Amino acid sequence: MKQFAADAIEPDVIVEELLRGDGAVRITGLFTPDQIAEARAIVMAHSEAASEKVTHFQGAAAAEGTIALQRRVWNLLAKGEIFSRMAAHPELMRILRRFLGTEFIMGSIAANRILPGGPGQEPHVDYPYWDFHKPETHPTGLNGSFPMNAQVSILLDPFTEASGATAYVPGSQKELRYPTEEDRFHERSERMLGDPGDVALFYGVAWHCAMPNRSGHDRSAILIQYLPKWVKPMEDMPAALPQAFLDNASSDMRQLLGLNYPYPEVLDAARAGNTEGRA
Asked: What's the pTM value of the predicted model, to 2 decimals?
C-alpha cells in the first residue's frame, strides 16, 4: 500500500492508485495526537455505554458468543465536533472531489471498536456494492471503471497484524464482484497497517475484511463512507442530527450531508424557478 504524507498529497496520483493500482493508500500526518485522543475518548465512552449497536459482517461472531467484542458507534457527528473536522478535512475533500466528483456526499460515519479477542469479518465489498453476491439485483454492464464509493479509516489504535489490521487483495477493485472461496483471499491478501492518526483510503469495492484481534489492546477506527451525490446514502444522517447542527453546518458539511442535492423531490410542488435543467 503506497504511502503519502499530508504535505505531499497528489490527488491525481492517489486516484490512479485507487482505480488502477492496489486500490488503497495510506496517508500520514492529517491528524494530530490530540485530535486522535479526543476522538478515541468519545468512542470509548459511547461504546462502553452501548455495546450492542448494529454492525455488519459479523461472520461467526454471534455463534461464538463474541459479538460484544466488536462494537459500533453511530451518529458520530452528533457526538463531538472533532468528527465533523475529520469528515471534512480539506485534504480529504480535495482528493475525494477528484475521485467522486466535486459534489460528492457522505454515506456514513461511525466508529468500529474491536476488543482483544474480537472476531474478524468475512471478505466483502462495501456499500453500494455490498450485496454483489446477488449480481442480478444490479444493472447490467455495471463496471468498476468509475467509482461509486470511497472508504476512509482513521486509525485510533495501532493497526498491526496482531491487532487485526484490515486485510485486502491489491487490485481486486477491478473485478467488481463478491469474493469467493476460489479467490483464495487470505493467501493473496495484504494488510492496511498503520499508527494512530494515519488514514487508510481505499476504493470500497476492493475485497477486504477486518481480521481477528489477537493483541492485548483495542483496535479502533473511525469509518467514513463517501459516495457520488446521486447514490442513496446508507445512513440517514440529517434525520439523526439536531436542527441546530443542520442550521449551522458549513458549506462543506452541507455538501457531505446531501443538503445541497434536491432529489428525490416532489416536483408537482416544486417552484417554477427551481426547474432549470430538468427538461
From this structure: 0.92
